[in-house]
Amino acid sequence: MIRRWLRATRGAVAFLTRLPVASREDHWEAFRSTPGAFPLVGLLTGATAAVPLLASGELSPATVAFGYLVAVYLVTGINHLDGVADVGDAVVVHGDVERRRAVLTDTTTGVGALLAVTVVIVGVALGGYGLAGTSPVVAVGVAVSVEVGAKLGMAAMACFGSAGYDGMGRQFTASSTPNGFVLPGAIVFAVVAFVWPHPAAIALCAAIGGTGLVWYWANRHLGGVSGDVFGAANEIGRVVGLHAGVIAWTLL
C-alpha cells in the first residue's frame, strides 16, 4: 500500500508539475488509479509556488503578485493552460457536441482560447495582488489551499466523472473508482471543518467549486470530461479559489 502511494505520488509530481522528478511507466499507472495523489501534489505545488507571498507586507504588492504568478507556472508548467485554451475555443463555438469536440482537438488557436488564457493569467495575477495585501500567513494559507482544492476537484472528476471519448480523460476515469475519493476527501474536509471559517478553508472549497463549474459544462456540452477539461478545471479552480480567499479575508 505504502509503495503504491509513493509510486502514485511520484507519477503525479512528474505529470502535474515541472519539478525535476524522474518517473517510470509504473509510476504513471499507479497515479491513474490513485486519485488521492492529486491533492498531495496540490499541497506540494501550493507550498512551493507560495514562496513569493512570504514577502507580503515587505515588498510592493505588484512585485509580490508578479513573483507569485511566475512561481505558479514555473512549478506547474503551462500544460493546463493549453487545456484552458482548447476549452475556451470550444465554449465560444456554435454547434452540437461533435462540433465542440472537433474544436477542442483542433490545433488552431482561436479568439476563445486567447480570451480564456488571458482571463486566467490576469485572474491569477490579481488574486496574487489581493493576497499581497494580507499577512504572509493568510496569503500562503490561501495559496496552498487553492492548489489542494483544485487538485481534489480533479480527483473527484477522475473518481465520479465519465469521459466522452478515448483520450487522457478516459485514462483517469477508467482507472479510478468512487472509493478512491473517500480517503483524500475525508482528510481534506476534516481539516476544512477544523479551521472554518478561515479564508484558506473558504478558498479551498471555492477552488473545488471552480473545478465543478468546468466539469458541469463539459458534461452538458462535450458529453463528458477529457484531458483538456482536467487542465482547464485546475486553472479555473485556482482563480476562483484565490479570489474567494481574498474576499473572505476582506469581509471577515
UniProtKB/TrEMBL annotation:
InterPro entries reported for this sequence: CobS (IPR003805)
Pfam family, one: CobS
The keyword Membrane is assigned to this record: yes
Membrane-crossing residue ranges in chain numbering: 109-131, 137-160, 172-194, 200-218
Record protein name field: Adenosylcobinamide-GDP ribazoletransferase
GO CC entries: plasma membrane
Taxonomic placement: Archaea, Methanobacteriati, Methanobacteriota, Stenosarchaea group, Halobacteria
Residues of the signal peptide: none
Cofactor: Mg(2+)
NCBIfam families: cobS
Gene Ontology BP term (one): cobalamin biosynthetic process
Enzyme Commission number(s) from the entry: 2.7.8.26
Localization in the cell: Cell membrane
Membrane topology per record: Multi-pass membrane protein
Family affiliation: Belongs to the CobS family.
Pathway entry: Cofactor biosynthesis; adenosylcobalamin biosynthesis; adenosylcobalamin from cob(II)yrinate a,c-diamide: step 7/7
Known catalytic reactions: alpha-ribazole 5'-phosphate + adenosylcob(III)inamide-GDP = adenosylcob(III)alamin 5'-phosphate + GMP + H(+); alpha-ribazole + adenosylcob(III)inamide-GDP = adenosylcob(III)alamin + GMP + H(+)
Class of enzymatic activity (EC top level): transferase
GO molecular function, one term: cobalamin 5'-phosphate synthase activity
Function: Joins adenosylcobinamide-GDP and alpha-ribazole to generate adenosylcobalamin (Ado-cobalamin). Also synthesizes adenosylcobalamin 5'-phosphate from adenosylcobinamide-GDP and alpha-ribazole 5'-phosphate.
Keywords from the named record: Cell membrane, Cobalamin biosynthesis, Magnesium, Membrane, Transferase, Transmembrane, Transmembrane helix
PANTHER family for this protein: ADENOSYLCOBINAMIDE-GDP RIBAZOLETRANSFERASE
